[in-house]
Amino acid sequence: MTVPSHVGVIGGGRMGAGIAHAFLLAGASVTILERDEAAAAHALAALATTIDASIARGTSEETRDDLVARSASTVDMAELAGSGLVVEAVPEDLALKVQMLTKIEAVVSADAWLASNTSSLSISSIAASLSRPEHFCGLHFFNPVPSSTLVEIVRGERSQPDLIDCAQQWVAAMGKTPVTVNDSPGFASSRLGVAIALEAIRMLQEGVASAEDIDAAMVLGYKHPVGPLRLTDMVGLDVRLGIATYLHSQLGERFEPPALLRQMVADGKLGRKSGEGFYRWDD
Ligand SMILES: NC(=O)c1ccc[n+]([C@@H]2O[C@H](COP(=O)([O-])OP(=O)(O)OC[C@H]3O[C@@H](n4cnc5c(N)ncnc54)[C@H](O)[C@@H]3O)[C@@H](O)[C@H]2O)c1
Known about the structure:
Blueprint: E1 6-10, H1 14-25, E2 29-33, H2 37-57, H3 64-69, E3 71-74, E4 85-88, H4 94-105, E5 113-116, H5 123-127, E6 136-141, E7 150-155, H6 161-173, E8 177-182, H7 189-205, H8 211-222, H9 228-235, H10 237-251, H11 259-266
Parallel strand pairs: 1-2, 1-4, 2-3, 4-5, 5-6, 7-8
Antiparallel strand pairs: 6-7
Helix pairs in contact: 1-2, 7-9, 7-10
Bound molecules: nicotinamide-adenine-dinucleotide.
């Protein structure tokens, strides 16, 4: 099983460019749809940079020219018409995702597959607006896509079993490992990752231990590559607060964001991107 010969990606930001790169290396030609010409050019340049990195690392047997020749970006949705699969990777906004997916559904052929890279929104809720919900599932890639080996496949209530089988094979063809999850808030990865992070923040708030010691407990005791507080700094405290707020609304009290997290976000301590979170990020 190979990936579809042509894959469209809607939104060529941090995740979209990485997703395009992963399908490209697996043999597809890719077209990234962006909202304006400048963003389309930027997405293609980002893809070229990741192509160069793959060539330098020796992770592709193809030449740079072969890979570049199969890459395109556009602002015209009609150029995605021939895609066997379109992966949506626009910002985490339900209305925007529904808008883009319903439009692309009208452009691609009736047997094309659609997927969303949402990290938290309900696949079944998005599918409810589609005319072919059985052709739609979640394909949750991780950041940074090129070095991440996991893809969560999210099975919506109406996702066709054939699609889930194909998705598992596409992920394997990209050299990554699929985990398949029934549609539920936070899927498996965000739900577990946020649960650990929130408990670590509550422990810091209660003075149980320092941030360094809480993180070391998980890194050395449980072989996590990064402690939950350092990881929250890397992801962004605002991003984690957003997901925790959503999970709190869907799954109840155990996901209530701790006061310390709310306060730090209100103070602009967002982690690495703002220079300070649970740690200082001076460089
Ligand atoms: N960043 C992460 O760590 C991460 C990890 C997993 C999943 N996700 C999910 O992936 C999705 C994208 O996240 P991101 O970090 O790549 O965001 P991003 O802001 O880097 O990229 C989004 C892109 O979508 C484009 N876009 C916006 N409106 C558009 C439109 N109408 N048509 C075409 N393109 C449009 C933007 O120009 C931008 O390039 C979100 O759903 C997010 O939750 C993000």
